[in-house]
Design a protein that fits this description.
The chain is an alpha/beta fold and 821 residues long. The protein contains 33 helices and 25 strands. The protein starts with 7 loop residues before the first helix and ends in an 11-residue tail after the last helix.
């Protein structure tokens, strides 16, 4: 298989001529942003041929295709990743050098594609990278939001949200595919018509509709000429507004349709792990699902006559419950447009759809009010009612006389459509995202479903792509690894195990620690530029970066910082390794307690960073606008990876894996994939603390615990808590952090006090933090432990995850693309 041959002179010429054509400038006059655009178009020029060749090959092989349906794809930047994957990074760097530009600066001009909130969206992006690299036919199906995840600014310690106008300068990589536009209908009513053969036809009338137009983005495999597609849908008015309709009196309808189209794709909902029940959100879901399912069926029918064979060629993976309307939408097409019987349609649908559960947080469960659901999607609602009727019938047959089962499992109940139940009923596979998470699903959250259909349930532990999070994000370490053990790890991460041979070698340890130091310098410069704070690259970089959520317990982390600071104030000579506590997190715009936690972190930072008496032993930094592009630098620079969620709450976590791959040691609870990380690297090279998930769940069934006992008996904790309400960190407003204090200690109701066990786990956490401090003093041990973390990260590549999905769920055909043909 020959792959792309980079030609430096040609490339320089193309960039120069792109600058000229796009901006009427010579290369010497071009701004870095203009050069970025010019380079992007030059790279696209290469990709396009491989993209076409890949799809020719899929056609020729008539390969089974995955449609990965997701409301979110948190892609980050494309250019740097793409040029790595076409193996042209060194060449392009040299070419740009010769033109007088620095590749890093050029890459920095690209905006992140932030079409996602956090882990769930980033997982989808890693999966696309692995699918292309492994050569599997796959489409990502999503929404082309006009505004992605908001940009976070910190003003006076508070989070301010600014719109993410990511498309302002256009997107050089996208291709608009007008020829594949389809219509999506909302509202109105369904009229039933009986034909001459006595068959019912269902006709939606008086509806509003939009035109869905797909934009394709290339997803480049690593060194294999495969380019897959992320297809994101834009909405347009079905008829451009015209005076004629005004005359006809349809003015109102025309305006409404125009607004509908404009609103649907306007913005990504910034909620992570939280269901808000907004009508527009349901519109977004049906919009992109209907469009994607129509496209998939049309594509299948263009090549095949027998719709019954759909499951042999097509599989839909639903990324959480957000795309669940795919089940009734496929049913609608099979029943109403293909004229199949219910039994035939259901058989095909349940062989085509599969569902991944990503959370057990009750507040994240999607339950749409019937009124809203039936008004917006009248035909879909009829179908869901029939699915429910048959499903309940089956429950009653399986468990005669047990109405409790109906209550807990029905799809429609209590005036709501329960999307998780619909997803399970309509799927042939239901998977969790880490061993512990899947066990909790089977034994607790989805127990009844598991007992009725155990064969559906399976685990697929999440993974991450080492191409972005080591090869791109940490070039120094990547080169070092390749020097030691060769470059197989790039496409076969378990190879990295060979590094274990070097873990005891003192020279290697020094080299490793020196690379870590260089990465810490790079992050320190970033922090200085963006936050104006000086941090000591010789201090321990202790990092918690992820969405802000109570269950993730950033509060526990900052309470511990406050405790440590108290100790230092009491005893300025206290012997401790200097520590930089680094935070990065966005809070959902409406999540008050999360936003207050950000303010607290910044207030604590202000006090501590300006206190000369502690001689810089502690620094606290809140990195503004945490996102994929700066995350790559942060992982590279971390010594300690904070993974401190309340056990049982974090389904998997994937940041934990990115830290490990970059040689940070995990300070964490036995939650999510932390359990498997510890299993791989060993407890001796991690810092584990806190209650187990069984203990947490046992307390929860008993209605919680009483944090006042701790408050009364532990004076260090009491002191920290009092500092939340005595103005220690907010001299002008002693009430500022009252809500945080109350969330921990609510004296009116213990069941609402400290629901995430911050205080319960505090001592155990502080003790683990002490072990970190002790361990870091032994530089050789630390280097060895860090190298062992890298060496044991092989399991956590998304290549492994994808291969398991393929082997056990999707059964896709692998394809090779040869550019010589
Ligand atoms: C999440 C989980 O919270 C997270 O633990 C997991 O790693 C991720 C991907 O499986 O999915 N579930 C969820 O609703 N969000 C997540 O990030 C938003």
């Amino acid at each position: 298989m020959s792959s792309y041959q980079f030609n430096k002179e040609e490339f320089k010429q193309e960039v120069t001529s792109n600058v000229k054509n796009l901006f009427r400038r010579t290369i010497a006059e071009a701004t870095p942003k203009q050069v970025f655009q010019a380079v992007a178009y030059a790279v696209k020029d290469v990709l396009i041929d491989e993209w076409i060749a890949t799809h020719k090959e899929y056609e020729k092989e008539d390969a089974k295709t995955l449609y990965y349906m997701s409301m979110e794809f948190l892609m980050g930047r494309a250019l740097g990743n793409d040029i790595i994957n076409i193996k042209a990074r060194d060449g392009i760097r040299e070419a740009l050098d010769e033109l007088g530009f620095d590749l890093n600066v050029i890459e920095d001009q690209e905006r992140d594609y932030a079409l996602g909130n956090g882990g769930l969206g980033r997982l989808a992006a890693c999966f696309l990278d692995s699918l292309a690299t492994l050569g599997y036919p796959a489409y990502g199906c999503g929404i082309r939001y006009k505004y992605g995840m908001f940009k976070q600014e910190i003003k006076d310690g508070y989070q301010i949200e600014a719109p993410d106008d990511w498309l302002r300068d256009g997107n050089p990589f996208e291709v608009r595919r007008d020829e594949y536009a389809v219509e999506v209908k909302f509202g109105g009513y369904v009229r039933t018509e009986c034909d001459q053969y006595g068959r019912n036809h269902f006709i939606q009338e008086n509806y509003q509709s939009v035109r869905a137009v797909p934009y394709d983005l290339p997803i480049v495999g690593y060194g294999n000429n495969v380019v897959n597609t992320l297809m994101i849908w834009d909405a347009e008015p079905i008829n451009t507004f015209n005076l004629e309709s005004f005359d006809k009196g349809d003015y109102q309808t025309a305006v409404e349709q125009e607004n509908l189209a404009k609103n649907i794709v306007e913005v990504l909902y910034p909620n992570d792990n939280h269901y808000a029940g907004k009508e527009l959100r349901l519109k977004q879901q049906y919009f992109f699902i209907s469009a994607s399912v129509q496209r998939a069926v049309n594509k299948f029918k263009a090549k095949h006559d027998d719709i019954h064979k759909l499951p042999e060629k097509v599989v839909f993976q639903m990324n959480d419950t957000h795309p669940t309307v795919a089940v009734p939408e496929l049913m609608r097409i099979l029943l109403d447009e293909e004229g199949l019987t219910w039994e035939e349609a259901w058989d095909i649908t349940t062989k085509t759809c599969a569902y991944t559960n990503h959370t057990i947080m009750a507040e994240a469960l999607e339950k749409w009010p019937l009124e809203l659901f039936s008004r917006l999607l009248p035909r879909i609602y009829q179908i869901v009612e029939e699915i429910n009727r048959r499903f309940v019938e089956r429950i009653r047959q399986t468990y005669p006389g047990n109405e409790e089962k109906v209550r807990s499992m029905a799809i429609i109940y209590d005036g709501q459509v329960k999307m998780a139940h619909l997803a399970i009923a309509g799927s042939f596979s239901v998977n969790g995202v880490a061993q512990l998470h899947t066990e909790i699903l089977k034994s607790k959250v989805l127990k009844d479903f598991y007992e009725m259909d155990p064969w559906k349930f399976n685990n697929k532990t999440n993974g991450i792509t080492q191409r972005r999070f080591l090869l791109h994000g940490n070039e120094l370490l990547a080169n070092w690894v390749t020097d030691k053990i060769g470059d197989e790890w790039i496409t076969d991460l378990p190879h990295i195990k060979k590094l274990a041979l070097y873990a005891d070698d003192e020279k290697c340890q020094q080299e490793f620690m020196n690379i870590k130091y260089q990465n810490k310098l790079r992050l320190a410069r970033y922090i200085k530029e963006n936050n104006g704070i000086d941090v000591d690259p010789r201090s321990i970089f202790d990092v918690q970066v992820k969405r802000l959520h109570e269950y993730k317990r950033q509060l526990l982390n900052i309470l511990h910082v406050m405790y440590l600071y108290n100790q230092l104030k009491d005893n300025p000579e206290m012997d401790m390794v200097p520590r930089t506590f680094i935070f990065g997190a966005k809070a959902a715009a409406g999540y008050k307690i999360a936003k207050l936690t950000i303010k607290l972190i910044n207030s604590v930072a202000d006090v501590i960073n300006n206190d000369k008496s502690i001689k810089g032993k502690i620094k606290v930094v809140f990195i503004e606008d945490y996102r994929v592009s700066n995350a790559e630098w942060i992982f590279a620079a971390a010594d300690v990876s904070e993974q401190i969620s309340t056990a049982s709450k974090e389904a998997s976590g994937t940041g934990n894996m990115k830290f490990m791959l970059n040689g940070a040691l995990t300070l964490g609870t036995m939650d999510g994939a932390n359990v498997e990380i510890v299993e791989e690297v060993g407890k001796e090279y991690s810092f584990i603390f806190g209650m187990t998930s069984d203990e947490v769940i046992a307390y929860e069934t008993r209605g919680g615990y009483n944090p006042m006992d701790i408050f009364n008996n532990d004076q260090d904790i009491r002191r920290v808590l009092m500092q939340l309400i005595n103005g220690y960190y907010a001299p002008n407003n002693t009430e500022l952090f009252r809500d945080l204090y109350n969330s921990l200690l609510n004296t009116l109701s213990t069941s609402k006090a400290d629901t995430y066990f911050n205080l319960k786990d505090f001592r155990s956490y502080a003790e683990a933090q002490k072990r970190v401090d002790q361990a870091y003093r032994d530089e050789k041990w630390w280097a060895k432990a860090a190298i062992m973390n890298v060496a044991c990260s092989g399991k956590f590549t998304s290549d492994r995850t994808i291969q398991q999905y393929v082997d056990e769920i999707w059964h896709l055909d692998k394809v090779t693309v040869d550019m010589d043909e």
